[in-house]
Specification:
Cytochrome Bc1 Complex, Chain A, domain 1, single chain, 20% strand, 16 helices, 427 residues, alpha+beta, 2 domains, five-stranded mixed sheet
Length: 427
Amino acid sequence: MMKESKVYKLKNGLTLLFYKDPTKHSMVAHIIIKYGGINNQYIINNKKYQTKDGIAHYLEHLLIEHSIYGNALTYFNNKYINTNGFTNSKITNFYIETVSDFENSLVELINMVNIPSFNKEDIETTKYAIIEEIRKNNDNKFRNLNKKTLNCLFKNIEYKNNLGTEATIKNLTYEEIKECYNIFYQPSNQVIAICGNINIPKLKKLITKTYENLKKEKIEYQLPNYNEPNEVVKKEDYVTEDVNEEYVKVSYKINISDFTNYEKVKLTFYLEYFLENNFDESSDAYRKLIYQKMSVHSISHNFYPIDKFIIVEIGTYTNNKKEFVNLVNNTIKNKKFNEEFFQIRKNRTIISLILREENPTDMLSPLIDNVIVFNYYENDKISDIENYTFEDYQNQINKLDFTNYCVTEIRKKEVKSKEKKLLTVAK
């Protein structure tokens, strides 16, 4: 059976991503709004406007819990349709998954997102749920560390809390929220991604007609240009937490603006291979970490894009900050490339792509990431992975500039003198 992917851009600016798979019984639709926690500024007629942190996430709750159908979770679940939403730093995503009545449900999802029905009373009601979520999130000891890290890395890009703070949420007004909705929820800022045994021409026509009936006003706006320098703002910083073990993280700020969109997507695979090869349990760095008694923990590593940069983070629990930082920097400087490992990792990637086909959501997620993050309108393909070469892998990693980095820590809270006396007496 023939699988098919199509990308369209409608007159109103709406982007449509279709992936047809006749083997599937369930169908999935995502409406992605290119509005996340990082977006708290916009420009209209050369005038910059500032909004409060947390509004993107707040709008997600409002549109689901106070939709034109009432609570949309209850409404769709009563029809045996799986639905929900989420907000991260870059996007807000609303989705449905169903095996029947897909077209009507898709129209209802579009209407839920594009016909706001929340009022001033709903704004106040929703605050309580958001504040509870913020309080739970405050228990995450890495939240403050991540904030400190981003403030060390960036001069013009501020750390944004996707949830906002209790103070900002308590003071939000209906007017502020509606203004952000009108700006960021325009069709030109939306992407609809659909996967399953679908009729692409029919769905394209249905979506086009549904949006024409909405008659949403178009507002011209721009997002600010950060003009962020390559250099980090601060080399070291720390937070104190009530922890038993201290944590050290080295974060590299790497400019990838010279990479093409496709090279950026490919780099995500190559970086994963490189970090696993150099920092996983089978690596020389890990063996040194254990042998030199720097830590008894594994070395964590991850990466994520922000603006024109890719941030690579490598950390572990250790009380030997200097030794660990030297270990990481020396490992990065003396990069190891193992062709056998590369081939094994390539094969694992191909297997994972094959397994993605078992689940429509797993097929859509990487396509959405490619479009939103890297402006690359293709899904990951097995043929692309097969064409990856060891030489290209080495060249792409060697192009990365790891000279700009910062070191951030979670330090133990100092025990005050009175507390020390009480502990001594207790012993």
